[in-house]
Amino acid sequence: MADLTVIIPARKERYLNKTILDIQKKSKAEIVVVLEEENAERLAGVSYVFNEKPKGMRTAINQAVAIANGKYIMKLDAHCMLDNGFDEKLITEHQFNWVQTPRRKRLDPEKWEITDSNKPDVDYMYINKRDLRGYKCNGKNRDPELKNKLIDDTGTFQGSCWFMEKAYFNKLGLLDDKNFAGMGHESNEIVFKVLQDGGRIVVNKKTWYAHWHKTKTEVNFGANKSKSRKYIFELAKQTNYK
Fold this sequence. Notes:
Layout: E1 4-10, H1 16-26, E2 30-36, E3 47-51, H2 57-67, E4 72-76, E5 80-82, H3 86-93, E6 98-108, E7 113-115, E8 125-127, E9 134-136, H4 138-142, E10 151-153, E11 161-165, H5 166-172, H6 186-196, E12 200-211, H7 225-239
Parallel strand pairs: 1-2, 1-4, 2-3, 6-12
Antiparallel strand pairs: 4-11, 5-12, 6-7, 8-9, 10-12
């Protein structure tokens, strides 16, 4: 049995199979894909869940977690390249009440190679208290002294990749698909609930993933901000996020 289950919610994702093959090449992880609406080509060695009618990204992630066999789970977007042995590098450093994210690079999905190498990798992000959106900490990401701090706290992360123990996911009641809808505020909910529990949000610079940044017209999972906004602000207030 694999120690890690990689969970991929997917709706009309043209780079899904490239992502799956990359995971299989570089790790021993189990892979669970939740297909929304489109019953796409299926690859060997992958477990699939098919939702004929869309249920939304949060529900899709929860469906995958429910059948995951790994002690650890990692949610991953369907357009990502990964480091060799990323699973072992995350597991080796992990503690129960942590959520880890690897260092984030930028992906050219057509060439399947890292691009924009002149820009700093994304290690650090913060949540703006005014709009509760995540922003890159450009100063910290360029700081040469911080490059050598390979395990460090970060204020938040992009929802494209996060790693934790399945038991901790269940303990925190993630992901809430009653008070939230679509894909809105995924990382915020995780951050605030982890901090309420006394846990840590950690960037692991010993490994990385490269993510394709979609334009607004290419985003397939919609966010219902009006439904999510009130609840996430209340959750932030309870957390006293700094």
